[in-house]
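Section 5.1 Outputs to date
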Amino acid sequence: MRTGGAARPTAVVGCGLALVLVASGACTGCGSPGSGSRTAARTASAAPSATAPDVLCARVVTYWSRKVLDSHTYGDYQTMGLSNGQYDILRNVVDAARATKKRQGAAAADQLIVRRARQGCRDWYRTGGPSNGPWQ
């Protein structure tokens, strides 16, 4: 007759279940002391933070201004993913950057693009941004 034979499969299943629970984060009180609080801290810090609309606008306008600077056309604002207001900012930025590039070179033009895109987007969002109209 076997003694304790039935206890072993239960122990194996119990350990396997504990591993699944630990791996999924569902087991509290398992693992090393304080491991649950570290997992919670990691999860909380991994949450994305919101970026201000004027900052996103400046990034997009800067990107497209650099692309458009050397071309003779601006392209379609909808294809670029810009609103009408952002496109207006882009055109102003690129016009100024082209003139600066001729006089002072590419590095000065790039600095102007960054500066003017930030300022244009800040001003635009300060006055309401895209909420001023359907394509503004």
